[in-house]
Amino acid sequence: MKRLVVLGGGESGVGTALLGKAKGYEVFVSDKGKIKPKYQDVLENNEIDWEDEKHTESKILNADLVMKSPGIPPKVDLVQRLIAANIPVISEIEFASKYTDATIVGITGSNGKTTTASLTYHILKQQLSVGLGGNIGTSFAKQVLEDDFENYVLEISSFQLDDCKDFKPHIAVITNITPDHLDRYDYKFENYIASKFRIAMNQDSNDYLIYDGDDPVISNWLELHPIQSTLLPFSLVQTFENGAFLENENIKITIDNNQIIMPTKDLALEGKHNIKNAMAASTVAHLLKIRKQTIRESLENFHGVEHRLEHVLKINKVQYINDSKATNVNATYYALESMEAPTVWIVGGQDKGNDYTELFPFVNEKVKAIICLGVDNQKLLENFSSMVDIIVETQYMSEAVKIAYKIAKSGDNVLLSPACASFDLFENYEDRGRQFKDAVRNL
């Protein structure tokens, strides 16, 4: 009996353990932190051996196969020892994809991947049997075991791709590539780019890569590293024979002379970046033969994902906006770009090697005050102190929101868009976003 060791007892880990057991593996789950009670119950009920708050090496280094949570860096000693022992270390995506013949849509990118994945799923589910998983929602492995959908939309992070070897989505989407997570990639942008492109590494000419044709990072990489799949770019400024582009406020999508046209004026989501997300999702839907009318209606009634430019409340004519999901500079760029009123900006957290230069024009033009919410705000203070009259520091969300409430005047926005990871003060970006919303509701 082959031994599967799962490192990390969260959603993807427990899902992998269940699928592994069903496929005849002897399974052991190990988590250095605490496994949540709901996941402990699942493991107990399925008689799967587990431990938490430690890694017992003797029970791990005898594995035939290891699935590691994407949150565990490859450089940690235990992972290095597994690699040295020639024990394959893979991601949930890699493991689960071997047990399904479904059509897989894999979506990656520095920003927009959650919105694009959620929107793609929202369109496809009107007509197809489809599951949503990966870096979002229910574990992909668990869905393969329990639901056996004919199609999957997977949001996939670079960390998950790093542990893929044979994974081959029929349709791959790269929304964009901007510097992020550089602390995991030896502070080399090209390592991170290569990681994203792993989504297409096993594709052949029957597969598709949908990508932002306006993104120079993607275009340059494709020129130097040609891939086998059929390329379908999308753009706001160029036109393509095959792909999606904007013409007179309409999205036009052409694939092999088959064209569909979508008006942008009725899109539920605002902002230029969301036109691109809509282009990517509609191109997938068009490839999978979804009716034009269905695509159009879905784009009109999809209202976005939690913690992404989410309008929380208006208090005294001040709009409070939760963009906690903006964990890198480029995401915050989109947020600030879409602000139409003077903005009190709550920013900060765990810096991942950020360069804030691209935000300067927006900060000068739109931001009236900055509230730094992090353990170490030195870099923010150095970058922005000279640009605004008010810049303050706090380590409590409730205090950040109270300060914002005092500063903001009628007609202003208060925007939480941190541009950083949340792990210095919060459990994750969802926890940060929920605390923001609770603090706003308590004003």
From TrEMBL:
Pathway assignment: Cell wall biogenesis; peptidoglycan biosynthesis
GO molecular function, one term: UDP-N-acetylmuramoylalanine-D-glutamate ligase activity
Annotated Mur ligase C-terminal domain residues: 307-420
SUPFAM superfamilies the UniProt entry points to: MurCD N-terminal domain (SSF51984), MurD-like peptide ligases, catalytic domain (SSF53623), MurD-like peptide ligases, peptide-binding domain (SSF53244)
Main location class: cytoplasm
Location(s), subcellular: Cytoplasm
Free-text function comment from the UniProt entry: Cell wall formation. Catalyzes the addition of glutamate to the nucleotide precursor UDP-N-acetylmuramoyl-L-alanine (UMA).
Family recorded in the similarity comment: Belongs to the MurCDEF family.
PANTHER family, A to Z: UDP-N-ACETYLMURAMOYLALANINE--D-GLUTAMATE LIGASE
Protein name: UDP-N-acetylmuramoylalanine--D-glutamate ligase
UniProt organism field: Hanstruepera neustonica
Lineage: Bacteria, Pseudomonadati, Bacteroidota, Flavobacteriia, Flavobacteriales
Name of the coding gene: murD
